[in-house]
Amino acid sequence: MNKIKYELDPQNRLVIKKTGKKTGLARFRQVLDGRFKLDDKNNLIYHIKAPLSRDLKKPDQIKLKGKWSLTREHNLVFTLDKWKRQALGDQLTLQGDIIDVNKNSLLFALSTRTNKGDKSKYILRLSGKWQADENNRLTFNIRRSQVKYDTLTFDGAWETDRGYQVVYKYEKIQLKRKLKKIHTLIFKGRWDITEKKKITYVIDRNSNSLFNFRAGFALFQDRYIKYELGIGISRKPEPVRRTVILFGKWKI
């Protein structure tokens, strides 16, 4: 059976290569005009409008199975599993922006164009839950089943705003204009304290979307609570320090 190799072109269009079983030589390469969607298990489905070559027959859609991850530039990567005619280890890197976060979802915007040159944008909504890892980094766990998740790790330092909300910012360079753009993600939730060396930011307790941050130091005063903690980022030798101060008053 011939294996199919999948790639993406710069316009986020799916490219397929049919490879010979014995020789390993590419038989043909075809760019498909279409858009990605997600099924109920967050697998990729590519809905095809038309191939760029009219000589080749096409299905209505291509279903792909694999595992999600996040690049340092905050693009989504889908690494394919070995499944039927699908080649093992092919990586599809979706070029786009994370534009919003909700209590149990992440919205990723990407652009494409048709074979006639018409450009358009659309959004993928990934479902899952938000949590923090052992280094106090933010993670989004994409739901694949009731017990299985793929983890997107946000390898940067978060902060809090004046309303005590958790805020994550990341920078991206627009390739054509070479301009830097700052993207800001705001997580709406509330703070909860259950342990002296741990502070929790609850986004949605029902879906277990919450950040359990480990603290190295905690101070409880009359009118405020202060936590000192560190965020371990892979490209920095030392953790980034953060201070969380919650002002208020005690009640019994």
Describe this structure in words.
The protein has one domain (3-247). Helix content is 0%, strand content 61%. It has no helices and 22 strands. The strands form six sheets. It has a five-stranded antiparallel sheet, with no helix packed on it. A five-stranded antiparallel sheet has the order 9-10-11-12-13, with no helix packed on it.
Helix share bin: under 10%
- Measured distance between first and last alpha carbons: 71 Å
Domain module count: 1
Beta strand count:
22
Q: Structural class from helices and strands?
A: mainly beta
Helix tally equals: 0
Strand order of the largest sheet: 1-2-3-4-5
How would a crystallographer describe the biggest sheet? Answer: 5 strands, antiparallel
* Low confidence ranges: 22-26
Question: If you compute it from the alpha carbons, what radius of gyration comes out, rounded to the nearest whole angstrom?
Answer: 22 Å
Task: Give the SSE string.
Answer: EEEEEEEEEEEEEEEEEEEEEE
Oligomerization status of the protein chains: single chain
- Shape annotation: elongated
